Every structure is written in structure tokens, then in C-alpha cells.
């Protein structure tokens, strides 16, 4: 096999080239490619002996570790669909996922199984639980990890690369999580594209800090396995732990989201990090310019990759490192083998610098939303003018994100349609307001969002964590923003938070939760006022 077709082929190719190379490192332990391949085969055969049919779902509710990786690639080898479940989700959210896609087999830990005892009876499709780690197997159909794998059985393989490989559930910040259906072709094509522009090679050591249930988190595995590199799995508690691990493990590539980079940028970086770190890549939102500048001062020889993606299409754009000096606020151009369009509501292309919707076509576009024909039809559509002439018209994903393209073809993120603030007839990007706040140096974290207003429709509101030594920064911030923003973008409300801002399951700042909390508090205050006797 010279070209990978299915997800597990990425692992098999690297094992055939360098069986003794280290594929995974975690908590001081390591697995060579040959060892990892052997355990993947055992798990796959265990799945088949349990009677899990082709295309049925296996849930993986684990923190990052060897078992989570083995189970994911073992499902691919067995021709079944893996469903990675973010380990920070609560029992009710996990139950929704298990019910929604009819999970047959659940792989989890003793601690997480204990938390699910109250909801598992509501998930009749789950026929067996595989228990990774140490602990009592307990009652019912619960099998310890060591007893699950089977040696020597014949493993099934999915027929085509268009078959469903995984269902990735979104964080659910705007309602119950929805499952994005991802094919083998999506995963393999994404791995080959990303590893090519990041110039990954067998000598790389990639630090996996993002959840494996997040497409960018799982990508650390696929891009590494595509070239025979090593992945260091880390569930960190503090940003300092990330830096220490980068030194200890001689990390060459780091991919993270802006909230973590903001925290890392404020720390003193050991000189040893710069000796090995070849690149750092940002995804999951726009990185503030001040954060990028601080990171580059810590590791001046490391190459920054500013990227944009969405779960429905994996990865869409990247900014080549040499352009970060000239257009650091850009999300770049399309990744290799994909096309990015900027379209008006009527489907016609936007002019230079005209805001429009980012639309992605290519081999990484997902198969749609699990069990949701209506939502799938809203987001996955044939491009205008390309519907006819095909037995099956090619589907593009309409992102719901507003961007603009400059005269040289570089893209700039403006905001999500559902997060844009509409005030006095103006459409305001929360990202633009946040950038202005970060530029003052007065905030270490900030979130902007709209709150209802009778006269203006919405007003801009901010919640921020003050920068060190700036405990009472509100008045100073208001003055600074008056100098840098037009009147309609000036926040009507600024709240200081003494705690880090809340994150969703993928580590991004949860704007919707902050807005909902402020609206609920305002409504409660209004009710209290009505109850005061005149």
C-alpha cells in the first residue's frame, strides 16, 4: 500500500516504514508504531467478536491516553464508526450523544462510568461497556480493557473511502450538540493536506493539548501518522504544565486555540523551548495581534501558522508563516486541494473587500449532520450554477461565517452570522471589538457580545479579565476605546471577571454563555424592581 485510503491506513503505512519508531508518548510511557498497530488489530477483532455490525457506532468517552487512540483507529480497522466524546461533558450531554447516534459499545474509564450510572439506563442501544484503566468492572455488561481485545481473528475493512468513519459532536453552545458525519476520505485528505503545508516529517514531536473529540485535536494524530512522527498526549491543568512538557518532550510542533495561547504568552518561556519548537499553529478563532507578537518574541525562530477551520470541513485556510509579518490579522488562503469562496446571499462572488459568507468545497467537506436532514440541507448545498450535469452534485459547506478577501486573495475573518451584533442599523463584529480591547494591553481575556436594547436593538457588552496589575481597568479601557473605535462600537457595559472566562468543550471562550448569564441577571433584577412597593 503506497497511498492511504482509510483512516487506519495512515498508521499501517508508518508502521511498515519504521515499526520501531515511537508513535505515542503519554505520562512517561511510549508505544512504537508496531506495538500500536498490534493493539489496534486486537481492539478491532474484539469489536467484531461482539457482533458490532459495519457502520454501527462505538462511543469513546476517555481523557487523552493510549486507549483513546487505539479505540479510534481500531474502529476504523473494524469498519465501524467511532464517536469521540469530549471528556469534560456532563452525564446528560453524554447521554444525548449515546441516544442520538445509537452507540452500541461504549469505551470509558471507571470514574466516568460511575458518573454515567444514572443515565445509562436511558441509553438502551449501549449493549456493552469496555472499561479502560484500573478499577472494578462492576455489574452488567462491563468488560475490562485487558479482556476485550482478541488475537488472530480476521478483521473487516470498510469498502470505500466515502464510508462514514466518525461522528464529531459540536460543543453545543447554541443548543444540544449535533453530530458531524466525517468520512475516511475527509480524515485522510485533511491529514495529507495539513502535513504538507506544516512540512511535518518523521522527526517531529507534536504536542496534543486539544481534545481528541475536536477535529483539530484529532488532527494531531492523523498528521503525525501520515509521516511517521510522534505525538505526545497531554491533559494539562495549567499553562505552565504545557511549557514544562514542551521542554521535557522536545516538542517541535504545537497547535492550540487562542485562549491557551493568550495564557502561554503571558508566561516566561524556558529557553529550551526555542531549541526544538519548529512551529506553533493557531486554530479555533482569531489570535489577538498582541498575543502573536509576544509568542514570536518568546520563540523568534519558530514559524507561526494562523489557521481557520470548521468541524463541517475540518480545515479551510492557513496563512503561510512568511506572511505573518505583513498581514497578521489574516486567516490566509485555502489549504492544499480545497477551494474557498466568498459569496453573497444570492450565491454570486463578492468583490474585493466585500463581506460575504465563507463557502468551502473540496475533499474535506463532511457528509452532513447525523439524523438531521433539515440542518444538513441548510449548510451543505450545491454551489449555484453547479447543480446540473452531475449524477450526484458536489456539495459545498456554507460556513455561516462572514469574511472578506483582499486584492491579493488573502482572507480576513469578520464574525459568525449568529454572533454579529446589530446596533442602530450597524453590523458589528465581536472579534473587531475584542481586538481593540486586546490592543490596549489592559485585558488578558475578553469576550464581546450583544445585549438587547429597546432603542438600538442591541448594544455591545464586554466581559474581561484585567491584565496583571490592571485590577481596575474599566475607566481606562473606556477612554482608550473612545480613541480607537467609532461611537456605535463602544461598549455600553463592561464587566470585570476575577476568574478566567468560561470555555466550551473545545477550549474556546463561550460568548453565548456569558451573554445568557448577563441577560438572565438583567431579567432577574427587573423582576425584583417590579416587586418593590411604590
Descriptive labels:
alpha/beta, 5-stranded parallel sheet, single chain, 534 residues, 9-stranded mixed sheet
Structure description:
With 534 residues, the protein is of the alpha/beta class. The chain is built from 16 helices and 27 strands. A 9-stranded mixed beta sheet has the order 2-1-11-10-12-13-14-15-16. Helix 1 packs antiparallel against helix 2 (33-49), helix 1 (7-17) packs parallel to helix 8 and helix 2 (33-49) crosses helix 3 (66-78). The chain is globular, with a radius of gyration of 24 Å. The model has no long low-confidence stretch (mean pLDDT 90).
Offer a quick outline of the entry.
This protein is of the alpha/beta class and 534 residues long. It is built from 16 helices and 27 strands.
Q: State mean pLDDT (0 to 100 scale).
A: 90
Number of strand segments: 27
Q: Ranges with pLDDT <50 over ≥5 residues?
A: none
Shape descriptor: globular
N- to C-terminal distance: 82 Å
Q: Tell me the β content.
A: 25-35%
Helix content: 25-40%
Q: Which strand order does the major sheet show?
A: 2-1-11-10-12-13-14-15-16
Radius of gyration: 24 Å
- How would you sum up the major sheet? 9 strands, mixed
What topology does this entry show?
Blueprint: H1 7-17, E1 22-26, E2 29-32, H2 33-49, E3 57-61, H3 66-78, E4 81-84, H4 91-100, E5 103-108, H5 110-116, E6 128-131, E7 142-144, H6 145-148, E8 164-169, E9 179-183, H7 184-197, E10 205-208, H8 215-227, E11 230-233, H9 239-248, E12 253-256, H10 258-265, H11 271-276, E13 279-282, H12 289-298, E14 303-308, E15 317-319, E16 333-334, E17 338-343, E18 356-362, E19 368-369, H13 373-379, E20 380-382, E21 395-405, E22 411-416, E23 421-423, E24 426-428, H14 430-440, E25 443-453, E26 457-466, H15 474-484, E27 493-496, H16 511-530
